Amino acid sequence: MAKKLNVIKKLLLTLFFIWSILITLLFSIFAYNNSIDIKNLAIAKAKTSVDKDMAYRSWVASHGGVYVPVTQRTPPNKYLSHIKERDFTVDGKQFTLMNPAYTLAQMMHDYSKLYGVKTSITSLNPLNKNNKPDSWEVYALEKVAKTKKQFYELSDVEGEEYLRLMNPMIVEESCLKCHAKQGYKVGDLRGGVSVSIPIKPLRKDASKHIFLVFSMFFLLWAVGTGFLYYIYKKLSINQKEKQRMYEQYIFGLVDIVEKRDYYTAGHSKRVAKYAKIIAQELGYDKEQQNFIYLAAMLHDIGKIAIPDSIFLKPYKLNDDEYKMIQEHVTISYDMLKNIDVFSDIAEIIRNHHEHYDGKGYPRGLSKEELDVPSQILSLCDAFDAMTTSRIYKKKKSLNQALEELSRCSGTQFNPTLVEVALKVFDNQTLVDEDNEPFQTPLDKERFEYFFKDNLTRLFNSDYLNIKLHENSEYTYIYGIILRNFNNYNRKHGWDEGDVLLKYIASFLTANFTKNSHLIFRIWGDDFFILCSEALEIESTFAPLIKDLEEKEISVAFVKLDIKKDEIKNIKDIEKKVLP
User: How far apart are CA 124 and CA 100, in angstroms?
Assistant: First the structure.
């Protein structure tokens, strides 16, 4: 599930980045267009100003100039001194002629003062030094001299941004009144009207609009982002709920697997705990730790398909049985690979019995071919197997298990992981097992499947061998050997023989099951009692002997001291008992 959620997360993050880039791009386009609009607005203002100026100039020129009273602001224009009628007096009041350029300059001065729009008349060959062009105006006049058209661009004026426009002033017939002596003729470029529109006020006005639009774009981005987050949370919740349901189902199967065998109960949980500890020590994050923990919990799920006759067999498996139980890793893989919430751990589980040196199963993978989680699982699985008991073997101590891990470093296990395991397991508290197999009636039935005789329900020879091998509490073994029982079977039939055997077993059970005595049926018609103290077996058995003698069956009693007679298995008993 983690892998699928990560894919979804990456997809939604990609959509988030695309969405963010798209919104940013759209806003950038708007901001750029707004900047263009500001420039266009400045151009429009400049052209309007020029049109106004040129219209006024044309009006003045069409009247041959205008006469105004002579004042401090409007003294006689010295550049028009060659015109005889420049000045006249009426009723003692003096008037002077103002040509188009003079009146336009006056109006530009007032307009600039009132509205902040810088305008001026300039020329590459000015008569009036006040009309001397600045560097940009020189550049612009050279441009319009070639094209006879307006020229404009954004430019700085004393550190402030302006839209500057140069409008050509072409000599007309009316202009020759004042400028004919300068050699101008109709159609020549006399100079130009320079207009500078400040951009800052326009940007200030536009910024209010930009902020409003930005707020709208941000709101749109937030809504889209919220929607993507909602989708992620919804899918995440659905996936987690789906995983929870599957986990309940799968963990239920794990419980079934472990409840099939008392000696493996809790194995998956312990392996999961050990695997998580190692993952934590390796610096894995919480998600990776939980990922490995889940894989460990499910690593033996395939054992549910292994027959009881093999899975529950309490002693050494033969080659065919061992090959069959190896199939549990492939079965686990097949069970989980098609369940989307578990598909990402299926491969780990398939590889958890592979060895670092390539001598594991099912595919003989080695070293770099194995993912680290699988190698962690392999080590923890083996460690728990070593430190828990089976009915046919005693568990290793912690130090013994750690020594075994060290011995198998570089062969069965990854050396790096062994180093980590030696460090973290050194302080590990091992499970405190109860060696009593009869935990529940169900456990007892499973136990008896392998260790009880089907006819008499007494213990069989397999269990006697195990008890003799691990013996630490029994001192004596008593034998009740039936003679001529085969003749009884031939004479009365096998069914009657079985009835008699069950009768003898019930007698023994009624009289010799106290003080933890164990009763066994071996070799078909012989019975043995394993006990820790001496028994008066012959006197107890006396009531039954008469019945058996009437059936032409004799009874021989055998008493063996397990330690003195060096009884370690049934073969040792056979040597002592059978002729």
Answer: 18
CB 433 within 8 A of CB 395: yes
What is the CB neighbour count within 10 angstroms for residue 282? 16
Rounded Cα distance, 26 and 31, in Å: 9
Which of 478, 475, 482 has the alpha carbon at shortest distance from 538? 478
- Three-state secondary structure call for residue 432: coil
- For the four alpha carbons of 500, 506, 509 and 510, in that order, the dihedral sign comes to negative
Instruction: Look at residue 224 and give its three-state secondary structure.
Output: helix
The length of the chain is 579
Instruction: Domains for the chain: give ranges and CATH numbers.
Output: 2-64+99-204 (3.30.450.20), 260-425 (1.10.3210.10), 452-577 (3.30.70.270)
Q: Which residues pair with 161 in a beta bridge?
A: 156
Residue carrying structure tokens 């263009």: 36
423 class by beta-carbon count within 10 Å (0-12 exposed, 13-18 middle, 19+ buried): exposed
Q: Is the dihedral of CA 91, 94, 96, 102 positive or negative?
A: negative
Give the predicted TM-score (pTM) of the model: 0.55
Please state, in angstroms and rounded to a whole number, the distance separating the CA atoms of residues 134 and 345.
78
Residue 276 to residue 457: CA distance in whole angstroms: 44
The three-state secondary structure class of 234 is helix
Type of residue at 281: E
pLDDT in tens, 349-383: 999 999 999 998 899 988 888 899 999 999 999 99
CB contact at 8 A, 276 and 293: yes
Q: How distant, in Å, are the alpha carbons of 285, 327, 487, 508 from that of 10?
A: 18, 36, 83, 73
Name the pLDDT band for 275 (thresholds 50, 70, 90).
very high
Q: Which amino acid is at 452?
A: K
Q: Judge whether residue 244 has pLDDT over 80.
A: no
- CA gap 65, 56 in Å, rounded: 11
Instruction: Calculate mean pLDDT across residues 236-262.
Output: 73
Read off the pLDDT of residues 62-98 as tens digits, 9 standing for 90 and up.
777 888 898 888 888 877 777 788 888 888 899 888 8
